[in-house]
Amino acid sequence: MIKLQIVGNLGKDCIVKEVNGKNVINFSVAHTERYKDNQGNQKERTTWVECAYWTDKTAVAQYLTKGKIVYAEGSPEADAYTNKENQPAATLRMRVQSLQLIGGSGGDGASQNNAMGNTSAAAPSAYSKPSSMPVPADDLPF
Question: Could you tell me the pTM of the whole model?
């Protein structure tokens, strides 16, 4: 299995749908990278990931609003197509397996994570409390 982990801002409010008797929450996550090109000019590149979260816990949808920062894990999918300008383009999608609200406009992530029921069993290490126990070298995956 290939696993994708993303942290980014929701581009718009989520949409909850029922498909064949199952609930899906659709949302898009953006990450903007700022960098300098070879000439020293400031550049910006935004990557969008379209997400589908199949869950019975649709109550989390009320927290998935434009501008919120989320952490999501899941399986990636990529589709290539030709856009309106007849140029090659691609779409990155993810079938979400775990989701966590980190924060963003409208409040702090800690209180909102608790309100969501913390739908993720594992948070990214950059946002979780550090463990007091060191990881033994023989437990590292490389």
Answer: 0.67
Q: Are 35 and 66 in contact (CB under 8 A)?
A: no
pLDDT averaged over 10-residue windows placed end to end, the chain, 142 residues: 92 94 95 92 93 92 94 94 92 94 58 40 37 46 46
Kindly state the tokens that stand for 126.
């950059």
| Integer Cα distance of 12 and 115 in angstroms | 20
Q: Tokens for 4, please give them.
A: 């994708």
Rounded to 5 degrees, φ, ψ at 87 are: -110, 145
Domain spans of the chain?
4-122
Q: At 85, is the secondary structure helix, strand, or coil?
A: coil
DSSP-derived letter for residue 26 is E
Distance, in Å, from the CA atom of 107 to the CA atom of 65, rounded to the nearest integer, reads 12
Alpha-carbon gap, residue 55 to 22, rounded angstroms:
8
Tokens of 128: 């979780």
CATH no. of 4-122:
2.40.50.140
**CA geometry: angle 77, 27, 16, nearest 5 deg:** 115
- What does the alpha-carbon distance between residue 119 and residue 121 come to, in Å, rounded to a whole number? 7
pLDDT at position 125: 36
